[in-house]
Structures are given as C-alpha cells and as structure tokens.
Amino acid sequence: MALNFFKQRDIDEMDINDIPEEFINYVETLDEIGKVGLLASRPDIAKVLGVSIKDSNQDKAEMVQTEDSSLELSVISDEDHDGLGSENVELDDDVTEEVDEEFIAIQNNRYDGKKITEVLKDNMEPLEALAVPDKTDKCIVHRIPFIEKQIKYTGKGATYGVVLKVCPQCNRIYMEESGEEYIHEALTKRNIAHTFYSLETSSRYLRSQLSVYEFSDQEKIYIPEIWTEDNPLCSVHEEPLFEVPCIKKYKDRKVEFIGYFCDKCNKIHVRSSAVAEIEDNCALNGVPVIETESLVKKQPKKSSIKVKDIKPDYIVEDGKREIYAYKHTADCFKLTEADTVIVSDSIYCTLEGHETEEVLAQIWINQKKGGRKSYIFVVGYCAQCQKYYMDIDDYNVIYPIGRPEVTIISDLNESDYQITSGEVFNLEKNHLEKIESGISGEIEEIHGSSDYVNPYAVGDYDDGNLSFAKSLSANKYGKRLEELENYIPKPYSYRVDITADGETETYYIGAADVVLKDGKKVISANSDLGYELINYQTIKVHKDGKEYSIKLSRQFDIDHASLYGYTNLRTDEDVIFQSGITDPFLVRVLNMRKKQHSLTDIFVTIQENQNKIVNTDFKKNIIVQGCAGSGKTMVLLHRLSALKYKQRYFDFSQNALILTPNEEFSLHIQGLAEGLQIGSVHRLSVEQYYLEMLLQYDAAFKPENKIVSEMQVRQDYVDYIYSDQFKRDFDQAYNSILAKRNGLVDILIQLQEAMGLENNPFSWTDESRFTVQMKYRVDTLNDLVRKKEQDVVSAQEKITKLEERKAFLEDRIPASKHFAENIVQESLPRVNTKIGEYILEKQQEITELNKKIQDLQEEYTRIQGTLIMFGKRSRLEKLDADIKEVEAVVIPLQQQLDEQKKILSIEQEGKEDDEILAWMKQVSIYVKKVQDEVRLCSNTKDEYSRFSNELNETVDNIKIAYEEYHRIDAEQYSADIKKTVQYLYEQLEQYSLLNIYHQIYDESVRVFKETNAIKSITGKCHRYDLYIQLMFAMRYFNKKIGNMQFICVDEGQDLAVNEYRLLLELNQNNVVFNIFGDTNQLMKSGRGIADWSLMMSEFHAEQYVLNENYRNTNQITRFCNDNFGLQTLQTGVDGPKVREIPRRDLEKELAGLKVTTERVAILLPRTVQKMKYLDMDILPENTRKIIGETMDNGFISIMYVDEVKGIEFDKVFVVSAKMRRNEKYIAYTRALSELIIVVDETVVSYDTESDKNQKVNTNKSEKKIRDKNRKSAALKWERKEKKQEVKNIESLSVQVFAGEKAIPFNQIIVEDATRFKKPVQELLENIENYYLKYGKLDLPIWVSVKEGVYVLEDNYAQYVVASKLKLEQVNTICVDGAAKIQENPVTNLSEKEERNLPEVQDEEKEAEQINSELIIHISCIYKNAKNKCYNVNCIENVGKRCTQEEKCVFYIAATEELSVSEENEIEMDIKNAEIYLRNSEIEKHHKIIKSQPEYFEGIRSIPINQIDVPACFKKNRPAEKKIDALLEYYEEHGCLDKPVTVVFRNNKYVLKDKFLRYYVGKMLKLKKIDAICTVD
C-alpha cells in the first residue's frame, strides 16, 4: 500500500464535499491529540470526520471582520463582569444604560425583519454569529431547540464548510465556541466578511435578554447532590442547566441571585455553597428564606439476590473476617462499581431526616493474593442518599487485602487510605492498561518473529539444530524479553506532575526505565531526575534550565499488573510543601504504609544518609551499622536496584547475592525485590547458600535431617567452631586422617605383587579422586579374585553335569539294550500283516480292472450282433480302443504284483535281526506303511548304540574335568589375598566422602569436647556443620566453585569473621561485600561480630551509621532507649504505650484480638516449647485456628527470637524472662505499632557454659559419692573397658549362636558349590530389588560352624546376591544354634536367670575374673520399667532407651531424698513427657494418614514409591534414546517434562500412562513425582 503525504496547504484547500479517502484513512490511524493537531485549521472537516476540537484559552477576544474588501480585526475588550450577584443592590438606570451601550453592536441584529432560514445560503456575506458553549442544543433565551445548518464557501481550489446553529425566534445565528477561532481564520484567508462575538460577550448579552424569574412563597430551591463547576448538569436527568436571573421579593425588599434551570425538571437548581449565601442575604435584608430541598435521582432500590445465587467466600462483621460457612442466608444486595459505599464510623447516614436500613451486601474484592473473592458485609442503606454505609472497622479488614469493586468514599478525616475508585482512578487504571498492553504487545511481537525459538521447544528440529536455534534466539531476544517480563508486574509506582510558565509535564516513575517502541513510558527512580522528582524533600525541580514546581505527587498500589489504589502524596495546594516542612509528610507516609501490611519502596521517603549509602561506589566494601527499624534492608534493596540501573555491564542475576537471616525473611522481601526489578538477584539464607554450594561439590552432602538453630547448642562450642583455633585443629586433623588413608596405597602395591600383577603408578590430582581411583583398582583385583572363584564354581558345575549325565546313561542303557534286542522280532508280525493288507488291496484293484474288460467285451459282442444300427462301426472301434486301454493297465499291474510277491513272501523265520531289518527296508519300498516299523527299529537300535558310546566318552570327560578342576583350584588366590581385598574394601568404605569428613571433624573437636565435657550431638544439622563441610569440600576437591562477585549480607553481625573469609575464598577471592547489620542484635557472640573494627581493617570496608528508627512507634523507641541505654532517634509516629501483662492474662489478650489482616507474634525464649506454652483449650476456636508458626497477615505466630530477625509485626507479645539483652532488643523492635511484655517468672533460664560445666561436674562427683553410701533400689553392673575389649574380640570370633544374627559376609565360605543348584536369574533379581527397597535380604543365610569358620548351608541365592552387592554384613541363622533352640526353647534372658542356667553363671564368673570391681549404677528416677527416659527436658533422649545414666545432666538417682516441691516438679516433668510422647504419636499417625494415597484433581507431587506398576509396563524397558533424552531434559530443567498419569484404585495409585517418566524418576531416585490422577 502506497503512503500518501498531506501538506498543510493541501489540508487548507481541501474541498469539504470531496475529502480524499486516503486522507480519511490516515486520520483514523492517529490518536486524538494527533487528529486535533492535524485538523486545527479545518474545524469543518473535523466535524464531518467526528473529531472534537477544543480551545483551552477561555479568554478569547471578540473577532470582528469589516464588510469591505480590506480585512480588519476589531477586538472588543471585555471588562470583568460577574453578572448578577446575590447582593441586594438595585440596578439603577445609569448602569442599565451602560449595559445597553455595551451590547449596541449585538442588538443591531443584521437579520432583523428577515427569515433567518432563508438568509442562510452558501457564500453568504457578511456572516454574524454569537458563541455558545459546545454541545448546546437549545437557545438560552427562548428554550427551544436550535436548527443546525451547514453553509459552504467555495474559493480557489477548495470548498470550506461552516456548521451553524439557528434560533427562529431570536432570528440569530450561533456557533460553538471551540470552532469560532478556526472558522475566523479560514474565512479571513478567503476574504469573507464576518463578525463573531466571544463566548463571554455572547453569554452576558444573552443573560441580559433573559427575563428575571420571581420566586413565589411556595416555591423551593433545589440543591443537586453533585455540582460540576464547568458544565452543571441536572442530577436527576443529567441534562445541562441554564443560568436564569432570579429574584425573591418581600414588600419593598428583594434578594437577587443566579439560578440554573432544567427544562425537564422545570425547577431552579442552586449549588449548596450558594444556597447558604442566599439564606444569609435573605436574613440580612428581611426577606423570608426560600425553602430548599435536596435533589437526588430517584433510583429504584436494588433487588436482593436470590439465595441460590449467593456464593460468598467470607463474611465480615464487627471488624473480623471469617470463612462463610452458612448453608443459607437472608436477603442480600450485590453491589457493583455503580454503587457508592461511604466508609464512616458507623453504618448509619448522619443527614437529618434520613433513615437507614441495615442490610447484607455482597461485594467482590480483587485480592492481591488469592484472586477475586466474594465478601458479605452488614451495611446501612439510605434510600434518600441512595448510598451504603460501611463501618471503618469492617473496611480496615479488606483494605490491605485488595480493592473492593465498588465506589468508596471516606467520610473520615483520614488521609492514610488509598483511593480505590472514581474517575481519576479509572483514568489511571486505563493508563496502566495501556502501558501493560504496550509491553505485552512487544513480547508477542518477539514471540511471533520468524527467528524466535521458545527455550522450552522440543521436537521441531533435530537436537543439534534445535539447540543452536535456541542459542541464537536467546542471544538476540533473551535479554529484552527478560526486561519486558520484569516490567509487567509493576511497571511504575509513582506519578509526578511538574509545572512552569503554565505548562505541565507528567512523569511516571518506577524502579527501571520502561522504554517501548514508541518511546520512554517510565523513568527510573534511580535516575537523577527520577530521584529528584519523587523524593519528599524536593520542593523545586530544575530541568533544562527552568525551575519547575511540583503540582502533583501520586503513589500507586500496583501488584501483578493490576491497580489496587493510589494516594496523592502531595499537591500544589498542600500547605506543608508550600512551606517546605517535610517531617509531617514523612510521618503521614509511615502511618499509611503501616496500614498496608506489606513492604513498599522508600523512594519517596529516603533520607539523605540512606541515599548516600545507596549511591556509594559499586566496588567498595561497606558496612552499615543500623539500629533496629533504621531501614537497613530497604537501603540494601534500593542500593541493589540503583546499582543494577547504573552498572549495566554487570550481570546481577548471575554474580550478585543477597544473604538473608532465614528463609522466611527471603520470602518476606520477595515482593519488594521484584518491584525494584531485582527479583532475579539470588536471595538465600546463609544455610541455603552453604547447602547449595555443598551440593555442587557432591550430592552426598545433602543433610538427612532438617537444619536447626544453633541457639540450643552450647555457646562455648559454637564459639570454638567459628574460631581460628578450630581452623588450626581442622587442618591438623585433615592432614593426619588423609595421611593414614594414603597408607592404603602401600597395601595395594603389596597386594598387586602378591597376585603377581604389574605395579602401575598411582597418583591423583585432588584428594576427592583418591577413593575413586583406589576403589577402581581394588575392584579390578577383586574381579580377578572373583573370576578365579567363579572358575572353580564353573569347573564344579561342569563335573556335576557330567556326573549327572553319566548317571542318566547308566540308568537308561539297560532298558535301551532290551528294546534294541527285541524290537525287530516284535515288529515282524506287524510287518507281515501290513504286507497281507497290501497284496489284498492290489488284487482287488486287478479284479476290478478285469471286470471292466469283460463288460466292454460283452458290449462289443452285443453291438456287433445288431443288424441295423446307425454309427455301429464307430461305436465298435471305440469299444475296442477302451478294451485295449484297460488291458494296457491291468497286465503290467498283474506282472508287478507277481514280481513283488516274490520278495514279500520270503520267509524270515530264524534269520538275524540285521537280515530281517534289511528285508523290511526292501519291503517298505513297496509297502509304505512298513516305513514306520523300519524307523522304529532303526532308532531303537541307534539309541542303544549312541548311549553306549556317550557313556564311554562321559567317563573320559569326567576324568578330564577333575583334572581341570584340580588345576584351577590350585591356581586360586590365597585366603590372605582375599582377606586383604576385603580389608581394602572396608577401609575404603571408612574413607568415603562423608566418612572421611566425619573422621576429620571428630578428630578436630575431640580434644575440645573432652576438655569441656561436651556431649556429641547426633541426628541434627546446624549451620556450623555446613560451614565445616564447606571448609572440607574446598580443600578436598581442590576447587572454589563460587561465582559471586557482589554479596549483600543482611543481619551481617550474625556471621563470624571466619565465615566472611570462607565466602571470600569460596568465590575466588573476588567479592565486594555490602554488610548491613546491628551489633546490638547479635545472638551468639562467638559466631557473630560484636565490633566491626576487624572487618573494617581486614576487608578495607567503609562504615556508615543509621540511627533513626522508622519502624517502631515513639513509645517503643523510647522504651528501648531507656531499657538498653540507646540513643536511637524517633520519627514522630505515635502509638499505644508499651504494656506489661502477667502470664495468666496472655490467653485473655489473645482471645480479645480482632486479627484480620494484622501480623501478630508471640516471641519466646529458646528454653520454652512453642506449642505447649499456650493453654489452647481455653482459647476460642477462631483464635486457635490462626495460632501457629505461619508468618503472614491474619495469623498469630509463635516464634523464637532468632527466627524473626528482619521481620516485623503489627503487634508483638514478648515473653522476655531469661532472654539475653540482645534477644530482648530484637524482640521488642519487631513491633510496628504495639508492644506487650508478658511477665513470666516460671521460664527456665539459659545455663552459661561455665556454670553448666561446673554444674555437670559437681553433680557427677557429688552423686558418685552419695551413691556409694546408698542402697540401690535398682542395681545393675557393667564390665569395664577390658571386658568390653574381650566382648569385641568375641564378637569377631566364629562361634555357634542362637536365633538370627548379623555376621561379616567375608567369614562365610562355600565348602562345596556343587551342592547348590544355580539360582534362576529372575529369583536373583527379585532378591536384589527387595534389598534395594528395604535395605536387607529377604531371608537370612543359613550357616554352620566347622573348624572355626562359617560354612554356607542354605539360601544360596541370598549368598550370591550378597556377594554381588558386596555387602559387609548379612543376617544369618546358625543351624547348630537352631538345633540347640529346638532342644531347649528357653530364649528369654530373664527365663535363663530364673532357671539358673550354667551358661549365665559361667559368664558372670568370667566377668568377675576379668575385673572383680563392679561399677554400681543407681537407676534414674525419670526412667520407666522399660528403661525409657520420661524427662520432658531431656530432648535428646525423651521417649528413648536411656544409655547415658550418670553422664546425663538431668540424671537424678531413684534413691535420692527429694523435697515435696522437687517431687512435684519431677512428677510434672514425667506427666508432660507422657503428653509430649502421646502428641508425637498422634502427629506421626496424622502424618501417616496424610501421606496415604487419595484422589486429587489437577497436578500434584506424590511419593513415587506409592505408585503400583502393572506387569504390562514391566515387560518392556523404554528405549535408551528416550531415556537419555529425558535425563538430559531433567538435567537442564530440574524436572521431568510431563507428569505421569495414575488411576486411584483400591486406595492405591496405579500407573496408567507415561511409564518412561516413572522409569526415569526411579533411575534418578526421586522421592516424589508430578502426577495427574484419574478416576478408575
């Protein structure tokens, strides 16, 4: 399509009756601004094309064109004239004359005495017109509709059209004010005489022509509900109102004013502010006050929704939100955007005389989380106002949740709420949608490009081409797509309008520049202009050499591309900013943000000292020491946002990291991070980062247990772990253990020499390769050993087979011989019978042929004797031929039979079998049925011969096999070699990755633990474990895998200096640290940093200090200052005073809370168990439901202090008893608005390490002394270490045992493999699968004891699988022991003691001989009859069999004398332990129930071991190519490409489809797999 260009001259000369189609199409492509700019000179064309052209200049001069050919523009100046006021001044004659003189030119109507409709014609001159407001369709004076008429002026090259309005009664011409100037210019160019009067002059003239409306005593003034200043409309009919001079007379007095008349109402309207002035003037002049009445559009009352249509999700009442659980409901009104809801301090209309009805209203809320939900409210409905009234407490419930889909008007003097509806809101919403549409459009355009390839595309290309195409596409479009997708959730947050010299500029401001194809739509707050525009301290803006004033500053609440509301932060009418005072504004913004219950950016409120940190040099290490609530986290995030904007070359998504105090905090800042366009920057807790790095080294580092807090670990031990001394001890242990491990090489070399193998050089590049290479070599040697053993087994199997064959032949040959000797004679009668049958058959055949010849001859004789016969000759010839033909057959047949009879009739009596068999073979040539007998005889004789020959060969082969067996057996490796191989396996297992780490760790801490009496902690994983593992991994694998170059650390005081050194080393010593912390919030001094001096000197870091608290109220800040001797500056935000309550009132306080969207926390010391601290039984059900460990809006969170670092709550209860100073400080400063101290003196205190050690040692020594002098209520003895050593030696020796026992596999020998039948492969696979699933063999191996070794007796298949799996130990049953059990079935130890068996007595005597000194233990009072611990405080052992005894810090001897209070306390501990264990069992039961298969919809991740696989799938293994492709996909994406499909059948998941995904999931050892469930 060709492009057409139109010059301005073309447009000016264009004929209105012949507008080119190309021009019309071009105009359609323009936006409104472009259309107005293009058609400014041709309003007539604009009107034809439907384009509205308005002039913003309201003070147009009157334009007069003289009638002669010379053009002159006469400007009639307008004096300021207010029209008829509401004063009581009478109009005197002089004023009237002046007014008349002003309008002389207009009054001299050019068209008087003429019929105006006939005067109007094309090219008419002169043209005179008055101006009226746009869209005026009636004459102001006569109140009749205008007649529209278009006239044309034809000039050189073009026709110009003018649209005019005519009033027949006025006999005048009018035109709309917006087109007056343009028509004037057009007619002037065409030299057309005309006179146009300005709108102001025209309006004053027309008002002067209006007759004054006099009010009677009964008439009223009507007050519209809404008044539009520029274009007043009737609120009932929405029609334009027209000014009317009005007067109210009383005797000789009067009051004049301007009213507004509606044609349809026939009523005078006056705005409410003018009514008050009229009433004042009436009172002042003694004129009766005119009655007034509110004018409200009478809308029909909304009809209630049918009950079946009401599907609310929640109900809000009395400031609380609850899930709507009712089965039925009363009449309810469904409100929409067209309905107005007044938010007030009550649900009743306050206007006098208005009645309010309480009703239920359903309102949809567009929630920020959870989508669109329906809510029901109790509201007031005023029929007179046609509005609904909502209580402020109910509104506060939904305000932070999202936007109500109604028109909200606040009736309170609250500026802390966003505006969520109205015309401006809709305009801003449309603007956001336009921006989002532009972003989405560009994304779609990229997706539609021919060279764009979806990064997840599969199947369109071969693998190589697809990867290459993806790479090209990613290089070209990847970065731009990432930018565009990051814009979508929140493209901007602010709008700022600035003005200078009457011109206004509007800017939308966000975290990043939003640049689309048609220009920059959003500027970044990180730019100089953006920062200056939105910062609250800015009063004037300097741009392009001009000074601008801020006219409007507006903040938006945008989430996931939806506008939820906006707030006008300031306007040009704001007195605060006109005076330059900014602190009140800061307070207002802080208050407003507290109501939102979510993190928002601080671009507007950022302080100078904060901004200085944000803009600090990118490559500089910095430390920010900030008090609680000083905005450290905000500054961190805004600094990253600013750096990402300015440092375009640096890849923040790959090389930057935010280390957070915990996982909850990472989620807490996620929304703000995404809004600041830094969502792609990694946010990990320290533990998560350590673990992520470890798993990159090796998956074996994945902890089996949940990572728990270090708060309950002894302080001195944590201090030691993070100390330099530990690093030295670790290095020493590392070198020692690895040196011991490397000694295995010498054993390997000696083993190779003993096996007669060549000694290949052995070296490794890093320590992690040692075990792999070593195991490879040991596997090679073991394969040789196993091959020798297998050769022996094979030789034995060969002998066995030969012996079995020999036995078979020897058993078979006698019968075969008998058959061979008699078979011929047995077959001979049958052969003779078959010969007789054959001869008889042949003779019958010959007889039939002879009979046929005879019949033919008789026929021949008969015909020949006939005298007269037609064809006689030919018939005789035919018969003769037939006779000869049959004779030709029968004669040879008879001859053949005669010859065969000579052979068949030979007598066989007395002949040998071979002669008879030869005759039978000759007979079988003629008599086919004899062939079977011949075969039978031949085969029987051949079988006997074959068996006889084979027997002779087998005897020879057995001899050879035995010789081969002895040779192979002689070549077997010695038992020492086998033991050495097994020893190397055991040692290598000890030096596996985790085992060698544990050896090094145990050796590192051994001395410190022994010196300080520290117990080993098992079954738990702490951060220091990950820290030590990283130290080990970096050295063991000899590589540093980190790639972070910029690390921001929040709560940085909680990392030890050595952790920072580790992070630096891990990331190639190329890291810039930005550390944000507060030494007053340090939880553990040894692990963290109490003074930044060392960090500043070692890392050359610059320190910044933030000492203003923007989080807490003034009351909380003062409370903390007084309690902790701080000097934190307050921000001026007031709130409730800090309260103290006794512990007994805590549940009462919680029960009275109205928790809707607030975040409430109960913070406890670590010595208290969370869910046992509250008496849940006395709390209301709705309160119990929201109590837990969930940290979110609308919940009461019970947490420990270290779990909430960096997180804030609206209200906080702190159980501060026994908390350390820093714990209290952290806990107190979590509260945004209200802090309540719970006084509880029953809380157990922390033991300091020195006190604890002293207490433990003292208790041990005192108890040992006391116990020696006491009689034990329960005594038991144990042997000392020497006896233990003996027991260990005995456990390794081979001896008869009873029952089932695990013994070393290498102690089992196979004495004679020929005894056992080789297991089938399917059986071996089943046993191996059983072991892989359950970790043990399906059956124990049966052994016996012979000559000091275990000999295999049964379950050979289990032995083979154990050998294949290289098991160290296997479960066995000793057949000798089993025999003893059968002889004497007493197996219970107590029964043995009762029977006083000699075995027990001998054992006791042996113990006494080894050590006659017995160690006496007095049983612990907390142990029950089953030796289980029931001390609720002993967290490690509660509910388990106790092995600690006196070593336990909670040990109390059962015989110890106790006070009543101590006995009560012990009784309470035991009772609480029982409750704890019972709850644990219930929880386990719930978990088991919860983990049971169930039907579900959609896609869910289910345990893969819960899926049953039908046999039809197991038959065929998926193709290797498909498996490799899916494994590659998993490696790239971290998940499978599709979910499996299962059927829920008989309470089980049964695989229905996608077996390949299931198969690969099992290969990857996935615990869970995505699945789609279908109904059976």
Indicate the proportion of strand residues. Answer: 15-25%
- Average pLDDT number: 79
Instruction: Report the total helices.
Output: 50
First-residue to last-residue Cα separation: 60 Å
Structural class: alpha/beta
The percent range for helix content is: 40-55%
List how many beta strands DSSP finds. 53
Main beta sheet: 9 strands, mixed
Shape: extended
Give the uncertain stretches in residue-range form.
Answer: 55-99, 575-582, 1248-1291, 1378-1417
Radius of gyration, in Å, reads 53 Å
What's a concise summary of this model?
With 1576 residues, the protein is α/β, with parallel strands linked by helices. Mean pLDDT is 79; it is low at 55-99, 575-582, 1248-1291 and 1378-1417.
Write the layout of secondary structure elements.
Blueprint: H1 8-12, H2 21-28, H3 32-38, H4 43-48, E1 62-65, E2 73-76, H5 93-102, H6 104-107, H7 116-119, E3 127-132, E4 147-154, E5 159-167, E6 172-176, H8 177-189, E7 194-196, H9 199-209, E8 213-214, E9 220-224, E10 242-250, E11 253-262, E12 267-269, H10 272-285, E13 291-295, E14 314-317, E15 320-323, E16 332-334, E17 340-344, E18 356-367, E19 372-382, E20 387-391, H11 392-398, E21 402-404, E22 407-410, H12 423-447, H13 463-487, E23 494-500, E24 503-510, E25 514-516, E26 519-524, H14 528-534, E27 540-543, E28 546-559, E29 562-571, H15 575-578, H16 583-596, H17 608-614, E30 622-626, H18 632-646, H19 652-655, E31 656-660, H20 663-668, H21 670-675, E32 682-685, H22 686-697, H23 715-721, H24 724-742, H25 744-754, H26 767-864, H27 872-904, H28 913-926, H29 931-970, H30 975-990, H31 993-1012, H32 1023-1036, E33 1046-1050, H33 1057-1066, E34 1072-1077, H34 1093-1098, E35 1102-1106, H35 1114-1124, E36 1139-1142, H36 1146-1151, E37 1159-1164, H37 1170-1173, H38 1181-1185, E38 1187-1188, E39 1195-1200, E40 1209-1215, H39 1221-1228, E41 1231-1239, ...
